[in-house]
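Weekly sync, protein design subgroup
Attendees: M.S., D.O., the rotation student, P.L. (late)

Item 1: inverse folding check
M.S. brought a backbone from last month's batch and wanted to see whether the design step gives back something sensible before we order anything. D.O. pointed out we never logged the input encoding, so this time it goes straight into the notes. Structure tokens as presented (321 positions):
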């Protein structure tokens, strides 16, 4: 049964894997909303998923999709549970019915993170600040055209410039304090929640129990799908140790990811794939060169204005193994 857009399960079931509690972890969860479109028969698609026993997900209507589209919504799962779940089986059925996600103009992948993942308001603010400070570096991982990103997943500097002006653009500890003092208190205040906290931002703090990241374009490629969850999880863990956002460099975050090579196999593969994709599409910006390739980029002379003309074969990845 395909549910209405506003449907929420009465009894929310949380999924982890055996042993997580015993390992001393206090699990936090990721809930995904994956939009797919162009299904040849979405009711039969829904029936096949039910027949195959995919009880950990359900389908919903979504007004941003055509009538041939649905939103695949998961119950909350830990990262480990998502990694072990049979997402490939679901994606195979999407393909069987001609559905698409990445290769559309309509579909996104929204990931909810339990607010219990954040140890404090400071931690949550630093997490958001990491994305905002390095938003140009993160953009190649979103797989979105920029005009679509601005439509569905604005940066705070784009969404709230009228309220805070230039103050919102300089991401420092003053910005973090402003986030805690000016944004968080209004998240569930009826006077401000609908008007001040715009929902179509990349980091949506409006949900009561989750933080929703809306930046990714949809995908039915399992490795990319899992990589998106891993990226957010690594951001959560990395920002636990950050006290001063000004001291944080994007290359430090990448090196943190690389240290977990075995755990982050899909994410590391995804990063390299997205860099190669940026090279093919002529999107190797100075932020990408500095953030991913650890290259200092000087301001070019006017006749050398297009840095994308540099031979991409000369690029050397500079991660720490």
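Designed sequence read out in the meeting:
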């Amino acid at each position: 049964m395909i549910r209405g857009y506003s449907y929420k399960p009465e009894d929310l079931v949380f999924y982890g894997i055996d042993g997580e509690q015993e390992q001393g972890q206090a699990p936090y969860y990721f809930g995904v909303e994956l939009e797919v479109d162009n299904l040849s028969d979405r009711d039969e698609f829904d029936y096949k998923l039910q027949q195959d026993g995919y009880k950990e997900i359900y389908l919903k209507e979504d007004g941003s999709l055509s009538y041939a589209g649905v939103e695949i919504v998961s119950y909350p799962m830990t990262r480990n549970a998502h990694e072990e779940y049979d997402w490939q089986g679901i994606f195979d059925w999407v393909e069987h019915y001609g559905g698409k996600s990445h290769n559309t103009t309509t579909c996104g992948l929204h990931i909810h993170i339990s607010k219990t993942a954040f140890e404090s308001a400071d931690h949550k603010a630093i997490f958001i600040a990491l994305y905002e400070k390095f938003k140009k570096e993160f953009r190649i991982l979103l797989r979105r055209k920029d005009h679509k990103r601005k439509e569905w997943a604005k940066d705070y500097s784009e969404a709230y410039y009228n309220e805070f002006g230039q103050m919102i653009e300089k991401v420092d500890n003053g910005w973090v304090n402003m986030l805690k003092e000016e944004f968080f208190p209004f998240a569930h205040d009826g006077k401000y929640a609908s008007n001040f906290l715009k929902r179509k931002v990349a980091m949506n703090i409006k949900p009561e129990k989750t933080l929703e990241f809306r930046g990714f374009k949809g995908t039915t490629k399992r490795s990319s799908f899992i990589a998106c969850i891993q990226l957010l999880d690594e951001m959560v863990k990395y920002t636990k140790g950050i006290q001063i956002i000004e001291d944080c460099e994007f290359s430090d975050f990448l090196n943190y990811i690389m240290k977990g090579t075995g755990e982050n196999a899909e994410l590391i593969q995804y990063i390299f794939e997205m860099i190669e994709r940026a090279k093919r599409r002529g999107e190797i910006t100075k932020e990408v060169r500095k953030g991913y390739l650890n290259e200092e980029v000087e301001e070019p002379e006017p006749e050398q204005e297009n840095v994308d003309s540099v031979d991409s074969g000369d690029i050397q990845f500079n991660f720490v193994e």
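Discussion: Strands lie at 30-36, 57-60, 70-74, 108-114, 203-204, 210-217. Residues 107-314 form one domain.
Action: P.L. to compare against the previous round before Friday.
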